[in-house]
Design goal:
- The complex is a heterodimer of chains A (about 350) and B (about 260).
- Chain A has 12 helices and 13 strands.
- Chain A is of the alpha/beta class.
- Chain A folds into 2 domains: about 190 residues, P-loop containing nucleotide triphosphate hydrolases (Rossmann fold, 3-Layer(aba) Sandwich); about 70 residues, 2-Layer Sandwich (Alpha-Beta Plaits), CATH 3.30.70.1560.
- Chain A is globular.
- Chain B has a two-stranded antiparallel ribbon.
- In chain B, strand 1 and strand 2 form a beta hairpin.
- Classes of the chains: A alpha/beta (about 350), B mainly alpha (about 260).
- Chains A and B meet through strand 1, helix 3, strand 5 and helix 4 of A and helix 1, helix 5 and helix 11 of B.
- Chain B: Pfam families: ABC2_membrane_6 (PF06182).
- Chain B: This is ABC-2 type transport system permease protein.
Chain lengths: ~350, ~260
Amino acid sequence: MSRLAIDVQDLRKQFKVQNNRAGLGGALKDLFKREYREVTAVKDITFQIPQGEICGYIGENGAGKSTTIKMLTGILVPTSGQLRVNGFVPHKEREKFVKEIGVVFGQRSQLWWDIGVIESFQLLRKVYRVPEADFRRRLDELVERLQLGELLNRPVRKLSLGQRMRCELVASLLHNPSILFLDEPTIGLDIIVKTEIREFLKGMNKEHGTTILLTTHDLQDIEALCSRVIMLDDGRIIYDGGLEDLKSRWSKGREIKFQFGSAVTTDRLRTLTEGLTGVSWTLENGVEAAMWLPNEINVSDALARVVGSSVDIRDIKIMETNTDEIVRAIYQSGSAETKAAAAAALEDDTAISGAARS
Amino acid sequence: MMSAYVDFIRIRFLMMLAYRVNYYSGIIIYAINIGAYYFLWQAIYGDKQVLAGFTVAQMTTYVAVSWMARAFYFNNLDREIANEIRDGSVAVQLIRPYSYLAVKLMQGFGEGIFRLLLFMVPGMVIVCLLFPVSLPTDPKVWAIYLVMLFFAFLINTQINMLTGLFAFFVENNEGMMRMKRVIVDLFSGVVVPIAFFPGWLSVAMNWLPFQAITYLPTAVFTGRTPLSEAWGVLGVQVIWFVVLLVPILLTWRAARTRLFVQGG
């Protein structure tokens, strides 16, 4: 078994939030006696990430993702629990610890606003004490991979978001960290830059074995990169496992859409699939109908019944389970455990479609 | 690592240089301030030769030199730190293998060098042309004053840091920063030399760090404090520098556990 890059045990973070009382009277009262309430952002979470893994960390806004990342990177001090990253306790040995990690905050720049990109990199080289030769080699590699060539001499404030984000990535990798934390790295980026960044991260992980933990709201990031997903809701982990698992566990079935040559009735369709338990039909209009079938039933069995009958079929579309829908359903239900009905809304038009013409 | 810190000085200096036009008006404002105090003191002295141990000539020089020293040691680190805490960008500072406060100090020093070269020196030349300022001729006084000026910068910066770090504990420390500015100007002796304070207050001042910023060094420079006692003044500055490190480090440590990164 490989060494653990991140080892978290019962990690908890509480914040004291000031209560502002309403109105003038409230403001006066606040002046003399402040009221605080405790907010627990992260509630005793436990997980391990082995070296070399790309792990997605997802959850709704305010679920506690960023707070966790900030504890893992040594910015925040946990209220309780154990935490070891790269063998360090981040907040205790911060200066030593951060030399081995790279961090990108999608919503905050870590480059110096007023100086040129290359000057920022040079400064980081000195801050991280990277030898000149190593720095050159890495910079050349990163610049080529992310096509930064002509951006290097521009001041950071004149970069577009996509350009800046690529520079941020370089900045976080110049010292060859073994763990990379990405907090919403693709937020606000166009699809081309997103794809580029995903490809780049995959390559980094493959060649250098960099462990990556990323939070995102874009599940395509997760699908493209992560072998594993940790889902957080209200400070608790509600799912930890493979993405495929998540899909198969929470998708309860599929939907097949039919387009018929002539008008059909629901009754007629129902008789076709008689005996297949759980299969249901909804008629969308006279010639279009959708068949929902649970996972236990083979698609081919169900299809054979319909195709083998005398109905005139113009088109067939199989709707694939879509991660967005699953995750949305889980978020809405609050917990992956309790929600089985999540699978109700599991179709998507962009997915695989088969067409059969008669 | 040292070279990184030097780079922070250099970069801040260059940045200030890029915005230097903002400071030309500053020179004029300082000259007006000095002029206003010069005429005010003229009126206060009337036909008296000495007040609180200051001759008219010494007072003129005191006003000019203390304001020009302020031009050098003044900085907005309190506001910078408070803003970085409030908008959460302090988080980015904490993922770097350096001491946040040391970097801030270096940036403040970069600003200080800029202010010295492009603000204090030209300002001093202008002031000397406009008002009857008499500068010391002994190079030893100049040398020790430069060292004291550096400590004035350090102590003022420390007070700024402490004020700025309070943003960790209160939602808005704007009022505190304003109060600090007024207190430093008054108690350091820029506005009124401490010798003019009522007895109890000037005694209280002996136990506070403010006079080490302006009053004590300027008194040496204007010749009110003889050179033989200058080492004592420098000693007071060094002691305050060391003493002030303690609350800063304590505040910083307390702040780290309380840190609440705003804006997610």
